[in-house]
Amino acid sequence: MNLPKNPTVKTLGIGLLIVRVSFGVLMMIHGVQKLPDVPGTIAAVAGMGWPAPELFAWLTIAGEIGLGFCLVLGVFVRIAGAFTALLFAAIWLTTSLGKPLFTDAPGVTGELALVYFVLGFAFMFIGAGHIRADRVLVKEDPLIEASEVREQELIRS
Fold first, then answer.
1. Is the pLDDT confidence value at 122 over 90?
2. Which carries the bigger pLDDT value, residue 140 or residue 2?
3. Of 38, 91, 101, 119, which residue is the least packed, with the fewest Cβ within 10 Å?
4. Which tens digit of pLDDT belongs to each residue from 41-68?
5. Under DSSP, is residue 5 helix (H, G, I), strand (E, B) or coil?
6. Residue 1: how many CA atoms within 13 Å on its side-chain side?
7. Are 71 and 27 in contact (CB under 8 A)?
8. CA–CA distance, 49 with 34 (Å, rounded to integer)
9. Hey, what's the torsion of the CAs at 32, 37, 40, 42, to 10 degrees?
10. CA nearest 112: which of 88, 147, 141, 79?
11. Burial label, 44 (beta-carbon count in 10 A; 0-12, 13-18, 19+)
């Protein structure tokens, strides 16, 4: 495989696609795995002290599946990233707040929720990249256009 020394718009887009789709699929798996035991999910949400546990359990399931689907397809990625960050911040605060961040167990308390929060937060800023399904709807992406222009300038010089 011949990889360029410096990343280009194309290689950055491919890398971003890999991260975005992988993250989206993992989120969808989280939601789908809750479907066979919705009463258990509702009970878990109720046990955390959330009001209207049925509503919040279904919002969590729908959020994980729907937001993951948006990420996989590359549609409304900045919005999906913001809601993903919000969802997993709430999950982490509900399940891990007040517990020591570091314990004898490997890793950090609630690290998966933290990683998902950070990825969602990042996608809120960076968007989908140039390989995305909503490219038909959103014709212009100023960040991509600016980097493509700069890349062409560097090639010419």
1. yes
2. 2
3. 101
4. 999 999 988 899 999 999 999 999 999 9
5. coil
6. 4
7. yes
8. 19
9. 60
10. 88
11. middle
pTM of the model: 0.81
Task: Provide Rg for the chain, Cα atoms.
Answer: 19
CA 112 to chain centroid:
12
Q: Which amino acid is located at 49 in the chain? A: G
Answer whether 77's CB lies under 8 Å from 83's CB. no
Residue 106: both structure tokens together: 């490997």
131 burial type by CB count under 10 A (0-12 exposed, 13-18 middle, 19+ buried): middle
- Give start and end residues of each alpha helix (H) in 35-96: 38-47, 53-73, 77-96
Residue 145 near residue 10, CB atoms below 8 Å: no
**What is the residue type of 138?**
V
Helix 77-96 crosses helix 53-73 at what angle (to 10 degrees)?
A: 140
